[in-house]
## 1
Amino acid sequence: MPHFFTRNLFVQVSAAMTESILIHHCTLLTESGAGLLPDAWLLTQGDIIAAMGQAHELPRAEISPATTIIDGRAMLLMPGLINAHNHCSMTLFRGLADDLELAHWLNSHIFPAEARHVTEAMVYHCTKLAAAEMILSGTTTVADGYFLEHQAAQAFIDSGMRAVAAQGVIDFPAPGVPDPSRNLRTAAAFLDAWQGRHPRLTPAIFAHSPYTCSNQTLQGAKKLAADRGAPFFIHVAESRAEQALIRTPRGTSPIRHLAALNLLDPQTICIHCVWPDDGDLEILARSGAGVVICPQSHQKLASGTAPATEMLRRGIRVGLGTDGCASNNSLDMFREMDHLSKTQKLATMEATSLPAAQALACATIHNAALLGLKKSGRLAPGYKADLILLDMRQPHLTPCFNQDLLVYGARGSDVRSVVIDGRLVMRDHEILSFDVQDTMGEVRKLSQAVMKAAPDWNKPR
Ligand SMILES: [Zn+2]
């Protein structure tokens, strides 16, 4: 068991972990507060970061002839970004129905398209297409929620990504669950099939929302997740219309409704939370439940601006996601960080609100904590080797004084190479883990049926 010493940290590396990557002469994004470390190196062993430091500390004796060496000159090395909310299969519906309000978008376009086009093959290929877009733009982990999630889980494994894959639960006939009375049994079978099966895959449960699931379904889904120690996701308080929909029959807010059903605890991740009132914020803070904000989707659907600044001030655990690309329409987490920070400044009329470092934390270490990925989201020995390298030799990244440029200036297309779980999945903009051309070909074939079924898809609104 060799020891590597760096910055007062020892890491024991298992002899069985033979694969290793050395990235050297790079600029390294260190723990928050310490800034950027020039002329640095990082060494992986197996699936973890074994050691890191500056040039004069390089442990040459520990580098074997089998080590893959990447020259990181003019590159910035940072943790892979984590997208805490996505419906990856919806890549098939990107741009199909833009510029519509949420209820009309869902009921007249998305739900009918899903009923017609979602198949096992569609979920597999379209999830892989999403994985390609995410890897190319520096996302190494995603939390996905959809139906036929077995296929999504397989797509994540085949693409090389790390994922929390959640089987959807809803009280309507859904792809793979034509009889909604079987929705919890289907979800249980999904957990049975995937728990402990692959080191990059965490299975979970996704209850669609308080307005599409009965109390009984919500409590059953949460109990199922809690009994198996799985994360539990739910869309909640996304729009003002949803507030009215819950308040009228139940006399309370969507978040109080979830609290009354005992659904809120640190393993529950509430997606959106655009419209919490003061009491709702208090409940969220007390419960330890996570909140994932999707700023571009909230803007595009005119849902509103989630009070992320106030949530963080109250100690609520806030993460960041893109939502499905039909309501965004991008899966680029660099764009999402930029929007998170700027929408908070506008909503609070305070330029100091949600600074860049906080947006970066939301997309990395905060998201890792929300998803229960204890050793992800930061560059530190012993953490998962999920890494991205940005090419800094570009006009819009020159000069680079500090990490704030990663939020306000960098784009997903600046990512040059990606390591996930200690494996090089993209090098010099080329995905190595699967054939992206083949995946795009499959999705183009699937899109023919979508075009035929929606004759006005090409007409400007
Ligand atoms: Zn969503």
## 2
Amino acid sequence: MTLRVVVGVSGASGAVIAVRIVELLATLGVAVDLVISSAAERTLAQEIDAAAADRLRARADIAHAIDDIGATIASGSYPIAGMIVAPCSMRTLAAIAHSLSDNLLVRAADVQLKERRPLILLARETPLHLGHLRAMTAVTEMGAIVMPPVPAFYRRPSSVDEIVDHSARRAIDQLRIGPQVAGPWNPSRHSSVSSVSESGDSGQ
Ligand SMILES: Cc1cc2nc3c(=O)[nH]c(=O)nc-3n(C[C@H](O)[C@H](O)[C@H](O)COP(=O)(O)O)c2cc1C
């Protein structure tokens, strides 16, 4: 049976990470059930272009409407391996933290938690106030993985695309559905610092 993953796109900055995740899952032969929030339609347009949401929907195997709360992915009986929310806004994070399943994206995330499946949240905001941090704590206590898309500067990325690609790969790896897709850290390839730097810090 084909492996299926839900990708939820909410209205935080970083819509391009969702695009890369969907592309990579396709290359891995993983079927994608996609759901895009209304705010994400806007960030996709703002951060990429006006047709970006439509192109993303076309890349998915199934694109669900955000208000279709009776869709397959709203049920725990639908065979899903896990879900990535990328990027995850503070609104969506808070809704998941309190099971406020008022749209399909939040409902699908709630389903992953109740079915004890992987739920990876690429939460994006800065700086963070106590309410954000409490919501992160709550979803972590419920079993989700909070994974802000923070650049891995130690890999010396040479472009935004490289940063986006690495964040997307790390998120997919957190699903633990197959072999690792983010290359392992290799100090000799990614750094001129072999073991201990001049300041005495390790290279990682
Ligand atoms: C260009 C743009 C960038 C935004 N960036 C963020 C962000 O990084 N984090 C965040 O929590 N909200 C951000 N927002 C605000 C959310 O889109 C807003 O809170 C929205 O209600 C979230 O709805 P959703 O969770 O249903 O997608 C941004 C909005 C816009 C228009």
